Amino acid sequence: VQLQAYGGGLVQAGDSLRLSCTISARDFRTYAVGWFRQAPGKDREFVAAISYSGGSTTYDDSVKGRFTISKDNAKSTVYLQMNSLKPEDTAVYYCNARRVVTPVMSYWGQGTQVTVSS
Q1: pLDDT per residue over 33-45, tens digit each?
Q2: Would you give the DSSP letter of residue 6?
């Protein structure tokens, strides 16, 4: 299983970006997917997650109301729509796919840089 995250870039505060995570898995529908981020000198932190069915989403309080996670099973892709970006959103963003049926496995993508200037 391979994950490819892309869509990052350099934007100004208040702008929007959409990150994509394409997952090469035959059984994509059995994966719950999350986005995490890591700023320089900080630990990796949770941002948002979506259930395998796409029917349930979870967000960290710092992004609630600004970010939206969604899942397109036909394209085997999970999106993170980021609006009203702030400088504190600057980080490398990683996607994680967790298989919810046995064998339970977890995979990480390579990360995409998001830089928000003030």
Answers
A1: 999 999 999 999 9
A2: E
